[in-house]
Records
---
Amino acid sequence: MTKTNSTIFHFVIIFMLILEIKIQLSEESEFLVDRSKGGLTHVPKDLSLKTTILDLSQNDISELQASDILLLSKLRVLRISHNRIQYLDMSVFKFNQELEYLDLSHNELEKISCHHTVNLKHLDLSFNAFDALPICKEFGNMSQLEFLGLSATQLQKSSVLPIAHLHINKVLLVLGDLYGEKEDPESLQDLNTESLHIVFPAGKESHFALDVSVSTAVSLELSNIKCVLDDNGHSYFLSVLSKLQNNSRISNLTLNNIETTWHSFITMFQLVWHTSIEYFSISNVKLQGRLQVRDFDYSDTSLKALSIHQVVSEMFSLPQSYIYKIFSNMNIQNFTVSGTHMVHMVCPSQMSPFLHLDFSNNLLTDMVFNNCGTLTRLETLSLQMNQLKKFANIVHMTKEMKSLQQLDISQNSLSYDENEEYCSWTISLLSLNMSSNILTDSVFRCLPPRLRVLDLHSNRITSIPENLIHLEALQELNVASNSLAHLPGCDSFSSLSVLIIDYNSISHPSAHFFQSCQKIRSINAGNNPFQCTCELREFIRSIGQVSSEVVEGWPDSYKCDYPESYKGTLLKDFHVSPLSCNTALLIATIGVTGLVLAVAVTVLCVYFDLPWYLRMVCQWTQTRHRARNTPLHKLQRTLQFHAFISYSGHDSAWVKNELLPNLEKEDIRICLHERNFVPGKSIVENIINCIEKSYKSIFVLSPNFVQSEWCHYELYFAHHNLFHEGSNNLILILLESIPMYSIPSSYHKLKTLMAQRTYLEWPKEKSKHGLFWANLRASIRIKLMYQAKEIDHTYI
Ligand SMILES: *[C@@H]1O[C@H](CO)[C@@H](O)[C@H](O)[C@H]1NC(C)=O
Ligand SMILES: *[C@@H]1O[C@H](CO)[C@@H](O)[C@H](O)[C@H]1NC(C)=O
């Protein structure tokens, strides 16, 4: 192989590798098609062949055929729950070899047939109309099955056998309304699952004998339980619970939707106390009946955590203190009671093992755990959403809770009496949530000193008093939705790293903030009524200097509120010129401008003889003013001469001996300011007079001319002739050549003229003189209207 060949070969291999990687990538990416809630009656025909996830739930589909999904060879997930499918042949999925998740729950399935099944991980057939358990013998091949949802009205031990050898994570079994009592209690014993959830028919008295303590299950959930004692004081459900005492594997028990009596309710706890269950959760309980006081046997329990959620009691005359006593003396670590009408909780009568108590969303008052010295191990306590009112009582409550680290007393009506002197927080507290109360600035006078997290959002705080508090360990402070007018500095919170202060009344945040709070990792100060004035620019600039992740919500939640013209503008887009904001800069700018002007004027005066120009302009303006007052037709007739001649005294010989004779012999009238002098007028006026009464101005240029200042002035006036403005009224005769460098820079007018205009050059050869004069005469010959005699008496 030649060298080039081998290079190409390598290139091709690399190319193929890249291609392969690309194909793999595209195979892994999902293609989701969501056609749920679309009122469909059939599987749509227009599905992309790339579909990997298809959602057809909540439609009116009554049939699923092979042709519907045949071509979707990449399909992995199919959700078709909440439809009206009555019959399903599992072999419709024959060509969907990738299918691993199939949700057919909440249909009207009565029958399925399974000549061919796919190896699913998730199969949900719950909430259907099956009579017997829909377990085909082919299900036994689903070696990867993790979740199986079933429904039936009759249970038979044999139905479960095909899947007895699988290790399923979770089985959901929904028992239909017609589920009866004459079932085989052992039906579920062969199920091999970690977690079993049985949903009993709602509202039906549970006279069942089903043994739910499946030997493999670690977690058991039972829903829809109606537990009533019969005439013999016997309850089917309680006997089911007592059977759990023989099962040592089970550690999680969850009961949902329970209707029972107070007596059976307490009995349930008592039964569970002596099982292997560690986590017991019971929710949505409806209680009735009376309660007789009996002793509760706390001994010998595995229980660690008990949660009670949402309890409604139809009984009001209860031995409440007895119930509180049962609860408060429980020998468990975690205890949750929420969503009940509990109004009080008593102090445990001896050292309590409680570590985490959650009593949120009840009706507790601030007398809870008053003077309680037995909760010394307690680490977290939530009294969120209760009826707490006096902040001082809560502070006092924690006094003996030596291990308390987290306290949540948010969403109450707590307020702090300013006159309260005594501040007895337990110093162990690290996190305190007092959000959504009616606390004011005074709360900062009494805070636990080692606090790391403090949530005070949605209170009535108007300022954070500096110097008053020193929370050196505080890392997170949330004071959103208060009425604060300023950003706090970090002098009192030297460790602060998170500050949430949005929705306050901050109009002029200090730019100093980021300097003061060196450890800040995140600040949210959005949605404040920022006043977009000069001072704010500093703050905006200081935001620009920190990393963008630090400022939460930037730039969208930071908008100008004032002035009106900027209202709604993002702070990011707010710009004012540095000049209008900085007085020193403004003064400096004015000073510098003045200085530059002064220098310019000086330069003009020195180099361009400005005062002379000014004087001349003044004269000229006066003359012009006089001219204005003369009627126009008269002015037009003021031309009395063909030409005015300007020359240097040194060239007067040539003018007198050559120029004048040669022109005047042809009856051309010439104005010489010394000859046609009007007495009583200044020289300048006489020059102007002469220029303006002449059709053309002839300039005799020579090095002498350049030396003469007067000539230059004459040139200046001629060029700006009032009556022939812009017209081509200048004639330059170059008597002797003038080197450009010899023209002084202030004679820039002459320089430009010399550069622009073609001038008549005085030829040295005598033979050419005839032509020169003819040329000159031609350019100044014009018919003059004035008579010679009027000349000397007419002025403008
Ligand atoms: C108890 O509650 C705490 C806080 O909610 C939690 O972290 C812990 O895992 C719970 N322990 C048990 C045994 O449930
Ligand atoms: C404080 O409690 C409120 C609910 O009342 C919650 O939204 C917030 O996240 C809690 N704060 C902290 C810091 O946990």
---
Amino acid sequence: MTGKWAGANQVLISREALRHNLRQLRRQAGRAGIMAMVKADAYGHGMLETARVLAAEGVEAFGVAEVGEGIALRRAGIRQEIIVLLGLWPETAAAFPAHGLTPVLLDGAMVGPLAAAAAAAGIVQPLQIKVDVGMGRCGLAPAQVPLLLERIAAEPSLRCCGLMAHFPASEDPDAASTEAVRGELSALLQGLGLAEAVGYRHHLANSGAIWHVVGSSLDLVRPGISLYGYHPDGARGSARLRERGVELRPAMRCTSRVIQVKQVPAGTGLGYGHSHVTRRPTTLAVLPIGYDNGFSRTFSNRGQVLLQGRRAPVLGRVSMNITLVDISDIAGVTAGDEAVILGSQGDDCLGADELAVWMNSINYEVLCLLGNRNARRYQG
Ligand SMILES: *Cc1c(COP(=O)(O)O)cnc(C)c1O
């Protein structure tokens, strides 16, 4: 998938930035293998092309949410282990042996259907188990794991190949949950005699934990956001990494193109609801981008874009496919000029961390919105 139809709005993905970020993560993760998280169409960067780039760099595994994503990766020729976090249902069980995908069991409900599907396919199906040690989301309590392992061991067509858990706040150095999660999973693995067992690949660390939680790397690590060049804690987190000499490179750039330049007098109501009325004679650039293109409606009267390397503030409401920006203080803008939505132009740069603040959200959402709602191209 390339996201959307080609048009004035373009997302450009730097393959070299993806490779660079992977190298930084590898250095930090030590002996652990990399499970690249490419769900959400690789956080807007395009799952298939991102996976091709990272596979060529030798990542050990890929993580996706749904079984259809795993099938698409196999059809694109990806040979690494593919772990499907949420896609195991009675009607998808057969797809796991058929496509060589590894499901994650959240409890015992799917043992029967998966065992039957694997037996019918004549294979021993690997699977993983999600333990809830403090995330308070999916997975089963540590005390329930031994019984589930027994049930799995009793099925000749199934083989457990790893336990996983997830951190609720690993990017926050003060989060009390972090050490509890790490300690509980570690105690569980020790207690079961599985901590160092051969044939198992346990994993726990997301990007925040890779950077900040000593001892969380286990056999695999699961970076998402930092592969794409960002820290889970936004600009503050990236600054902390820079102090340690780690520079991540945002892989996504997003641009639009001025479709019209016009002057309006003071007192002109702009766009739907006239939520901005000009206070002075104003020069406007019309951009053919809006919330349909992932340029959030929350940017109304709030966001900025770069034109001629300068900041042009959004005036009025962002509509579905049109946004007005104020270029009264920027000389020389003409129709056809490139407007930078995300990325640098001249000496200035708009990063997903800043757009996330305007949206009252996180860099993850900015990347998903812009990346998945515009045509993508790749370079490098
Ligand atoms: C998405 C996801 C990750 C990646 O998290 P980042 O914060 O993007 O590094 C890791 N583990 C699980 C279970 C996930 O769903």
